[in-house]
Design goal:
Distance between the termini: 147 Å
Helix content: 10-25%
Oligomer: single chain
Number of strands: 33
Number of domains: 4
Structural class: alpha+beta
Length: 566
Amino acid sequence: MGAVRYNNKRLIPAPFVGISKDYQKTGQQKIGSLFTFSITGKLLACVGSPTSSGTFLDDRLIHTDGTFGPTRPDKYPADEDACCAATNNTLSSFMVKENAIRELFAQEGKKFEIEGIDAATSNSVGEYPLTPSGSLYCFPRINNITFTEGQWVNTVDYTIGLECDEVFGLQGAQRDGYPFGGAGTEDAQVSGEYFLDAIGHKLYLESATEDWALEFNETPQTVESHHTFRLSHNVSAVGKKAYDEGGLISEPWRQAQRWVSPRLGLDNTFIKGQGSTPDGSPASGLNLSHAWGTSTGFNHTRSETTDELAGSYAVNETWIISSGNALEEFSVDTNTDAETSKTTVSVQGLVTGLDTRDTDFRITESKWDAAEAKYEAISTGGLTSTIFQRVQAYSGITDVNSEPLSSTIGRNPVAGTISYSYSYDDRPGNCISGAISESIVIQDTHPHDVFATIPCIGRSQGPVLQNMGTITEATRSVSIDVTMPFASGAKVCPRLLYGPDGEILSTTVDYMTGAAPKAAVDVILTAFDTHLRLNYTQVFINADTESWDPWNGKYTRNLGWTYQNC
C-alpha cells in the first residue's frame, strides 16, 4: 500500500492527497509556482499511527526484529491492545491522536513524502531505496489543520492544508534505466518553477514588480541644451519561506532582496529601447535613443524599504538624465535711468552641480566639484565669458562695459550650488587695465579780461571799473580717480626690514605704493601734457598731487597746467 509521512512520521491509515499547482504571475510575467496539498484522512481509535499514546511509527528504517537498517520495513508493528476499544477509551484515544498530529505539523519545513504502492517492490539487490522511484516529497509550509465535527466514536476525519514551491522525486526519476512512470526531465527554471540569482542559487518569490517612470525636469542643463529628464526606477519583491533538508533556506525578505539587487542601476538597453516594430521604433523600453547619445545619469539616489515580517524588500532609485554634470538657470534684467541715460543690465543665476556615481554607488565626482567647474567655465574669459555674452544677447545691448559695477557670489558646498549676480552698465570702457571703476574730470579756465575795481564814495552806479588792457592766463586741471581690486601686498603694514646684524635693509612702503596704478595714470596725464605743449608755446605745471588708499584700493591724481601763446 502507499504511505504518507511527515518528518519521517507515518500517517496510518494513509490519507488521500490532492495536489494542485498554480503559476504565480506579475502581469504576464511568470515569477514562480505554488503547489497546494490537500490531505484528507481518518483517525481510527486504538489503531494506526499516531497511536493512542501519541507516538508515531518511526518510519526511518525499522525491521521485523525492531532494529534499524538500510532497507524499508517489511511489516508494521501490531495493532494496539484490543482492550483499548473494549474499555470505551476511544474518545481519549482520539484526543491524544489529534494533539499528536497538531504537534507534528506545528513545525514547518520538514520533509513531507508520498510513497506509492510501486515503492514497496524491491530493486535488483533486494533493497528498498529511501527515495525510490514513485515517491514525491517536498518541504512545505503549514496552512491549516481541521478535525471535522462528529461524535468521535469509531473514526475522526481530518484535513491538513500544505503549500510549497517545489516538489521533488518524479522529474528525472528512473528505474532500470528508463524514465519512471513516463516522467521525463524538465528544466524547472525555464518552466517557471523558480528563478536563479547571480550566483546560481534558487529564488522563491510571491510577487515582484519593476517599473520605470520618465518626466521632463523643470531645470535644463543650459538654455542652449536639450531638456533634462528625471528618471525613477522602482523594484520590489515579496519572498517566501522556502525549506530544504537543512531547514529554512533564508528569510523571505532576503529572497526578495536577492531578486531586487541585481536589477538596480541604469539599464541602458531598456532606456534606449530594444527590438523593432514595423515602423522602425523600439518595441520596448523608454525609447530615449534620440536624447541618450551623450546623456548620463547624475544625482543617483536610492531609498530602501525592508519589511521583515511581510518578507518584502523594495528600492526606489532616481536620476537626473543630462548631457552635462551641472544644471543652470539665470535671468537678465535691464534698467535705463532717464536722468543720466545710462542703462544698467543685471544677471542673476544659479548653478546646481550633479554628483556622479560608479556602479558600486560610490561618488566619483561630487556635486560641489561639478558646480565649481561649471561656474568657472561660464564666468572666466572677460568679453568672451558665457555670462557676459548672455548679458549682451538677452539685453539687446552690445556696448556693455565688460567690467561689472558689482558682483555677488554665493556658495553652498553641501547643496552643491553656486549663485551669482552681476551688474553691468553701458559706460565707456576703462582706460586703466584692471580698474574696478575710474573717473577722469577735466576742468579748463579760459583767459578773461583783467580790470580794476575802484570804489567811489557817493557814486550811485557802484565802483568804477577800469580796463587794464590785458587778459588772464589759461589753466587746465585733470583729476583722475581710480578704484582698484585688492592686490597682493596692498595691505602690508609699513615697517622696517632688518638684516642679520640689525642693519636696516629696506621698508615695506614699496609694497604698499607698488600696488597703486601710478604708471597707467601717468600715461594718461602724459597725453594731456603733450597735447598742451604741441599747441601752446608756454606750458607750466602749476599743481601735481597724488593720494593712494591701499586698504580700499582708492587712487587719486590731480595735475594742473598754466599755458599760453607768446
